[in-house]
Specification:
Shape: globular
Oligomer: single chain
CATH superfamily of the largest domain: Enolase-like C-terminal domain
Bound molecules: magnesium ion
Distance between the termini: 14 Å
Largest sheet: 7 strands, parallel
Strand content: 15-25%
Radius of gyration: 20 Å
CATH architecture of the largest domain: Alpha-Beta Barrel
Length: about 375
């Protein structure tokens, strides 16, 4: 396969309602897509970076700059030797920038599999045709508002609820949800690094709610702190931001810092590294689940294929399109009895809808060989 051109598209997609985490509140999902043209056909992927470097150090303008200046020229340089499997070794010299690398590797993987007539799920050796769907509930202005949203999602059939938490919106919010909806609903929390090692007693109070897990309470670089916390609280500690590679996953497991792993392909540099993390976790009897970055259909489709692998035994965050968007940019993903179907068509299995791209695109830029 040979890379002929790359289109970088910036889109502003309105969200149904503001989504607030411990690090930001957004009304628009601002997103960058990579669209590659090869001699074997085209491919698409969504960059997981946010507009600002708030979830990780990467952000849109930076990710696009590193793609244009370093990543894309390296891939043009591969000539006829381009494959998705060749991308990571070719870019190995380049430190970090995993979300930028992921966008290119995944769009090339999409093109490769489309040309071979193989779905992403087949390529991964996925074993499920549908995956159970959880929902991530943002921080709200009031407990009443929170209960309204949680009740609505349960009614829609989501099989697991995740509450975003931060200092001041933790114990009371979880207690209110448990009091209103009972001890049996599968419930977990995500702090997105909002706590410190001084907060262990506060976090221990959450043990009484029998949560499935607490996700990334401490700074992403504080893996040892998570090991100490895992020892101190009963709620299983799950890492998200800290796990940027299979090597880090292995180390965190050995250190006792992680009992469940949230795999986000964009955060770890792509799906091929995600599969390695899955394999490390399975070998160590650590369950994994697939998290997300509020992806539109282009990113959501690929995450569903990954979540269909056998080690993904914990319910993930791959919700229906309607959770976030009035209009998705591909065919929508629909919740059926708590599950979402894994795409079966070649590649990521969905196609962007040109009219909707036109409506939401802020800029489109071509880089040619
Ligand atoms: Mg998270």
């Amino acid at each position: 396969m040979k890379l002929e051109a790359v289109e970088l598209i910036r889109l502003n997609v309105p969200l149904k309602s503001a989504f607030r985490t411990s690090f930001s509140s957004v009304n628009l999902h601002q997103v960058v897509w990579a669209h590659v043209i090869t001699d074997q056909g085209e491919g698409w992927a969504e960059c997981g970076a946010n507009e600002r470097p708030d979830y990780s150090s990467e952000y849109h303008t930076g990710a696009m700059a590193v793609m244009k200046e370093f990543i894309i020229p390296e891939l043009f340089g591969l000539g006829n030797e381009l494959t998705a499997e060749a991308v990571a070794p070719t870019l190995e010299w380049m430190k970090g920038h995993r979300m930028a690398k992921h966008a290119l590797e995944t769009s090339i993987l999409d093109a490769q599999l489309r040309s071979q007539g193989i779905s992403l799920a087949e390529y991964f050796g996925a074993t499920k045709s549908k995956v159970p769907s959880g929902v991530s509930v943002g921080i709200m202005d009031s407990i009443d508002e929170l209960l309204g949203y949680v009740g609505g999602y349960l009614k829609q059939g989501y099989v697991r609820i995740k509450l975003k938490i931060e200092p001041g919106w933790d114990y009371e919010a979880v207690k209110a949800v448990r009091d209103a909806f009972g001890d049996d609903i599968p419930l977990q929390v995500d702090a997105n690094t909002a706590y410190t090692r001084d907060d262990f007693d506060l976090l221990k109070r959450l043990d009484e709610f029998n949560l499935l897990l607490i996700e990334q309470p401490l700074n992403e670089e504080d893996v040892l702190g998570h090991a100490k916390l895992a020892n101190y609280i009963d709620t299983p500690v799950c890492l998200d931001e800290s796990i940027v590679s299979a090597d880090i996953a292995r180390d965190a497991i050995e250190l006792g810092a992680v009992e469940i792993i949230n795999i986000k392909p964009s955060r770890v540099g792509g799906y091929l590294e995600s599969v390695k993390i899955h394999d490390v976790a399975v070998a160590n009897s650590i369950p994994v689940w697939c998290g997300g970055m509020l992806e539109t259909g282009i990113g959501r489709a690929a995450n569903l294929a990954l979540a269909a692998m056998p080690g993904f035994t914990v319910v993930g965050d791959t919700s229906a399109s309607s959770r976030y968007f009035e209009t998705d940019l591909t065919e929508p993903f629909v919740l059926k009895d708590g599950y979402i179907d894994v795409p079966t068509k070649p590649g990521i299995g969905v196609d962007p809808i040109p009219e909707i791209i036109e409506r939401f695109a802020v800029s489109r830029e071509w880089i040619r060989a």
